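Hi team, as promised in this morning's meeting, here are the two structures we talked about. I've kept the exact order from the run log so nobody has to guess. The first one is mostly here for context; it's the second one we should focus on when we meet again. Sequence first, then the predicted structure tokens.
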Amino acid sequence: MTVPRPERVDAFGTPERAPARTASPWRGQGPVVAMVSLGGAIGATARYGAGQLWPTPAGAFPWTTFAINVVGCAVIGVFMVLITDVWAAHRLVRPFFGTGVLGGFTTFSTYAVDIRTLVATGHPGTGLGYLAATLCAALAAVWLGVTAARRALVWRRR
């Protein structure tokens, strides 16, 4: 003989339903977080290597960081055209390469620290020039990357 389970009721005598099980937010996002982390490690390692190969002397224009940010922005422009206009990429490609690798490679935090260091060490003109030049060059690089990729696609289709 089975004994019926007592129902839980609320204050009004209405039977309560068991709380619905919610899926862990990490279940669906776990692979994305892993790909961003892996890509970020690769990009940051490449940036670190470039900084070691071409160090910036104190008080000088930080050409290495400038070049990294401009090249990274151009690649982001090309990449976005490729994954939106050319092929339907796997759902983890954009987080891995776009957010991870290129996000880890480009270094706008170092850009901000470089500006602060230049100003603090008595080179405000260089810091201000670096601030403006990086912003303008990075935006131009994204635009050029997008434009060049789209023109290459049109030329290829002919």
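And here is the second protein, the one for discussion:
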Amino acid sequence: MRFITPALLLAASLAAPAAWAQDKPDAAITVTGKQQPPVKQAERFVRQLVALDTGQLARFLEPVCPLVLGVPAAKADAIADRLRRDAEGAKVRLGAAGCEPNLVLVIAADADGFIAMMRKRHSTFFDDLQDVDLRDAFAKGPVHAWRLIEERDEDGAPKTALSDSHSSSVFGQPTQAATVNAVVVLDKRVVLDKTIAQIADYVVMRTLAGAHPPRDGAAVNTILTLFDPQAGAPPRAMTEMDARLLAGLYAIEGTGYATGQAHQISRAMAKPGN
């Protein structure tokens, strides 16, 4: 499942289109050059949103090609445009026109039912996912999100039995984790009162950053609380800290260990001018 297979596209096309209740203005990304956060604050933010027990933090190495399904074409285009703008802001490479989709958002009339249909009719779609992504894909609720992660060599090329490390660093690994593709399925009931900016920015953090909503009900100012009814009013868009985390992830070395990478990201988030 290197790219989003026709099975997902077919299943999405069979799902009932999600009505859009409101057409709200697109909120701006909130990175405004404010005073940078202290390193400790940045470290705490990263640890609350990013799992560090995965060995390495994964990110897209190939150009990102977004696709939005389940809403009218104008809305789909607007969300996809916002996804691209977010990616550009973090210096993530984007695919050219006509590229093969590797980041897909599906807004389904019944998200749980959509996933159940996929498991029944196209179960092989999930074969290569890691356990944590299987849990995220199959967990009951209005949000299902997962990424296909692949081990690459230190240059980012697919790893083979003949791959040979030439790294001289004693602090890194001869491999890096690459996100091959990512999917988010949202139930239409939870998006009807959300803006294009909110939805796109949430999807970006789940897919490009591999971030999760704050654990244990922690009070964190992040777009990832968008669908948490206990978190109060969500941000109008990606927060400055969200954007710093995303940009930091795509600025670090990919061959480090997760804890070291998190520290690198935190230092980048706290660097003046970021």
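Starting points for discussion:
Confidence is low (pLDDT under 50) at residues 27-33.
Residues 6-19+35-155+171-269 form one domain.
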